[in-house]
Amino acid sequence: MDEKFDELLESLAGEDELKTLILDLRGNDGGIIDAAAAVAQRIIGRGVVYYRIGRDGSATPRTVFGGQPASFRTVVLVDGFTASAAEMLAGALRDRAGAVLIGETTFGKGTMQNVFPLSNGAGLAITIAELLTPNKHHYHEIGLEPDVPVEGALPQLLAGMREAVPLGGTLTLKVSAEGEAEAGGMRLEEPLPWFAEGGSIYLPLRVLAALTGAGVGWRADNGGEAVVYRDDGETVVYSERLGNFVIRKGTGYADAKLFPQIDVQSDGEGIVIKYLQRPQR
What we know:
The chain is an alpha+beta fold and 281 residues long. 20% of the residues lie in helices and 36% in strands.
């Protein structure tokens, strides 16, 4: 895993300096913890990557040596299926490299086990220790809470891409009429549905929120309303009753013009979405 990670970093760097790494650990149920620690070492350089809590309650640090901290920022995508060694890696990168965790609360498997083979071909797993993050946070049966909670695979990826945009930079998405999207020459696996109506372009509300750093909630009163919690502290209600929200095939859409941070234009073959990462005040 660590050798493949080195090859990946080299391919991403290319001729340009790598500014931000988006590490997607969604759906990663773990693996060999030593390999995950080696990946952490490539980013943090040196230091504690986790603590091992034995049966007597003593905390033994796992420390990596010999490297220099990476010059790039790290964004980590997580969900409810991020578990075990993947959780350890996410916690180590947040505590030691200042990585931003985006997505959903992780699974919560923070233990080490020894597996003993049995004569019938099965195996017996015995838990021998609990793992804590470098800052000694417990996450077993709790999970790691994301710094930026986002639901949905596509909104999570877009929120990660937004986080990676430098201040004053621009994130540009090109979306075909069929919803096939690409950013920076990379095709996104998840489709991005949209439609035009009455001179406006409508995008999924969760996508618009992810691109602008907002959160989305839902309340059942008044026939069902979506509430967007903007990053400036304001809240905006969207509902069909108010005329600023449309539900199609179970997905809620809003007029992109209601989000001034985003510019959406038709290019004849689809749409181009631009998000400008404005300087902080």
